[in-house]
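Predict the 3D structure for this chain.
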Amino acid sequence: MQLYEAQFIINGRSVAPGAGAAFERRGPVSDAVITRAAAGRAAEAREAAAAAAGAFAGWAATPAADRVAILTRAADLLEARADEVVAIACNEVGSSPDWVRFNAGIAASMLRQTRDLAKALDSGPQREGDNILRRRPAGVVLGIAPWNAAVALAVRALAAPLACGNTVVLKGSELCPKTHEWVAEVINLAGLPDGVLNYITNAPDHAEEVVETLIAHPAVRRINFTGSTRVGREIAVAAARHLKPCLLELSGKGTMIVLADADLKAAARAAAHGSFFNQGQICMSTERILVEDSVADAFVERFRTEAETLRFHPGKTPLGTLINPAAAVRIGALVEDAQAKGATLVTGGELSAGSIQPTILDHVAPGMRLYSEEAFGPVAGVVRVGDRDEALALANDTDFGLVASVFTADTGAALDMLARIEVGIGQVNGSTVHDDPTMPFGGVKASGYGRFGGTEALREFTECQWIAVNGGGKT
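Done. Predicted structure below.
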């Protein structure tokens, strides 16, 4: 198996780690060393931020259309070289090739979507009588990307900030340092000036030091983070100490509601996609399925059939593997807890080569850990409800608020329910796992705040300046 080397990218140059300043990423199943990566500390963090600060004035002055032209070339380059990142990510995080290619496609769409931002920015200041409103780049943006959708979420952390005229420090995940380095390298190769996009990695033990240093750096003006609610809270606290805004896309507990008039075949297929794609390691994964009693038996049977077509076989599965054996142990404990408290195992639950077969539990109820905790694995809990009012109440009975889906023949009823469900994203008759780079993406409650995607990104990564023109002079 190939051993990858991951380096820093600072001021347009790849920088190898000093003697002993490296860490190893081992494979999720084999435990073999996959990547030897540069292990940054506070000094390297400051160097990366300083490089981004030095490049800011020139990049901010570059016309938005020219910035986006570079990002569009990056999209083309990313797609042309996708085979490279498929090989890397499959080894580093155990993703399936289909998942990585899907990620790469979404990432390219995100880069091309920045054309919408260019149009908005190039329209110039808004005049309202003697008042001028303009948006200008914020400064250096710190992007912290996760491992689970490594290509797409690394690109998401930097695409809109760069298009808006900011410079970026991308902090890669310790679990996929080579995958994230590849993303930064490809986008730099598209023609970014030196220092506009910098990349740094760190050993797991030094994550807090590196992140704290970057947040505290005076040139860093925005932070975006995608990951767990637990870590997101720590980043929000650190940013608050320095009065720096954050965009946080955090944990989820995707909820699907299946009403009595729903197309059960379509609902079961969407539930299987939402629950098990990428081993359920997606923030939008379907984890709770609220089904009206009158159709629950029929739905569960169809859902079981769909799940059993997705059996995990090492090296021959569309699902990929879990990120590490510890994840399988944690998920297994959730399944055992639910069964001990009255849930019925419909299918799955078996450990296989570090992963878990697609698992469905019926009669899940409040008080079970699976009902309230994010599983982040291939496990779905079916909760039976008496009617749509109970479904609505239980849909909001969660700390999380990223995504919900409603299956019904009555689109109006679905829209009415989604208007009352506390989530940032709603789907009508669709999988909870769905992204559109032109649309705002983010959650509420413990799923975070702020929005990636669409022109909402302008609010996140630019400053709004108001100028009052007094005295009647020419403008």
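DSSP finds 15 helices and 25 strands in the chain.
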